[in-house]
Amino acid sequence: MKTLFYLLVVFFLFLKINYSQVYSTFDIDGKSACTFDIDYGTNVYYYKTENYFLHDTDSSGLVITKTDFNGKQIKTIPVNNNIFCQSPVIKISNNRAFIVWRDAGSLTFNSHIMGSVLDLTVDTLLIKDVKLNSNFGDSERFAPEIEIINDTTVFYYWTGNEGLSGHASESIYGRFFNYILEPLGDAILLSDSSHNSIDVKFGMAKTIYDSSSEILNIFWIDDFEGSRKIFHRKYDLKSGEFNRGQIISLNSVNDLYSFDVKTPDETFMAVAWGGENGGKDILYLTTISHDVYRTTLISDDVAPNVFPKIEYDDSYDNILISYDKKKGNNYKIFGKVFNPRSKEVSTEVQISDDFNSNNSWPFLKFNTLTGEFICTWISSDDKIRGKIFNLENYFVGVDKTKNEIPFDFELHQNYPNPFNPTTTIEFEVSNSGYFELKVFNILGKEIKTLYKGNAEVGNHKIVFNGENLASGTYFFRLKSKDLEKTIKTLLVK
Predict the structure, then answer these.
(1) Residue 431: which domain range?
(2) Same structural domain for residues 419 and 443?
(3) Of 366, 394, 422, which residue constitutes the final position of a domain?
(4) Tally of domains within the chain
(5) Distance, C-alpha 207 to centroid of its chain
(6) What is the 3-state secondary structure of 289-351?
(7) Which of 8, 127, 234, 273 could disulfide-pair with 259, CB 3.0 to 4.6 Å?
(8) 386 and 415: one domain?
(9) Are residues 330 and 370 in the same domain?
(10) How confident is the model at residue 482 (pLDDT cuts 50, 70, 90)?
């Protein structure tokens, strides 16, 4: 009996030890950046192309590699053998995989956005090679993405030139389709020209759909007064109306691929973005809740082309941010955890085991059924490599509540709001230091500096008089050395 007891103890210790280990990496036969989605926690569909760059002529086109959750390959499914396919994306909903890519053609100025639909019940293409963009002449289009709207509607969007009247240069466009890729109207212009620029610099747009309010949140990179900024705009699907674009990035964005967005629920959005500050490459995370913008410094040691990816872990109520970091002449993927409620940031851990002489092109997803993350990247031997892990196991020895950047202030909503012509702004400082409080209009133009200098611990109140301003929306932005927070207000005369 005693022997049996000891055997059971050893057995459970073995299970515990193995459960706490990091999952081993796995490889997929491919050379280019990989995106993927998860089919109900059972299978993972990795979407790859041999030919991500236009001149990489040794490609065999687009292929889906179907694996089990441990990365073991089950089968490959050909999608398109065109060697000019680029920037593929896949999204799964209701036993269907929606696939989109850029068909560059032989001429870069005559590219199209193409789509197919895979029936996951039989692993067969249900709809194949549908041109998704409208017919507006020869146009250059890039960076397609997918947003699932509901059980019958899917939204495709991209950067490019649709040739619409008055918007001949590059902008962000989107188009609604049903589940068999029949269009529900023409392409619509998503980006905003109210900031005096419709040249979005290959803006790599991202969207978040709020099903409760039927609002589509649109994010893109644009040129503003000589530097790249991230803009945020809302599209109301019920009324078909847009609001005006707002700048949400504090500093200049350092690369076109340097941002990602994610939402854990319909009241909170997170935007990870790479910026420049004092000659250093910085990774920030801007959170948006009830139209309040708040920015946190995640890392001040990242690659120039940081390629951040963010994914929400609903088991721990945390956000994992992965990013490229340059060590010597090589790149590796690292990660940090951000807690949306406490605003705390964990210490840094390394995710990828090997390195790449160029950017690793990481991609990150969370499986809600297993509570585990999957991260893929381009390895040093030019293969697609992946790792499966969860926060509890992978971040062994990491204090997830440790805050590298002190949460040193709180900016409260001004009162009264709306106001005419005066209102009071109150902020609370828990760590003394240098602060700036400024007013901006809806175009991001600075109107006035209300406070600039050192602030001691405690509450501070400032009265703002807007008698010389026109009625409209304005923003108060409080900034410290590492953090910033923005609130929206309305002046009504």
Answers:
(1) 409-491
(2) yes
(3) 394
(4) 2
(5) 8
(6) ECCEEEEEEEECCCCCCCCCEEEEECCCCEEEEEEEEEECCEEEEEEEEEECCCCEECCCEEC
(7) 273
(8) no
(9) yes
(10) low
H-helix or E-strand spanning residue 63:
strand 62-68
pTM over 0.85: no
Distance, in Å, from the CA atom of 270 to the CA atom of 204, rounded to the nearest integer, reads 16
**Side-chain half-sphere exposure of 187, counting CA atoms within 13 A:** 26
Q: How many residues does the chain have?
A: 493
What confidence tens digit (pLDDT) does each residue in 288-313 have? 887 778 888 898 888 877 889 999 87
Q: Which residue has the tokens 């290959």?
A: 202
In whole angstroms, give the CA distance from residue 289 to residue 351. Answer: 29
- Which of 303, 298, 362, 364 has its CA nearest to residue 330? 303
CATH code, domain with 67 = 2.130.10.10
Q: Is residue 350 part of a domain?
A: yes
290 backbone dihedrals φ, ψ, rounded to 5°: 55, 45
Rounded CA-CA distance 245/441 in Å is: 11
How far is 311 from 285, CA to CA, in rounded Å? Answer: 12
Find the CATH number of the domain harbouring 433.
2.60.40.1930
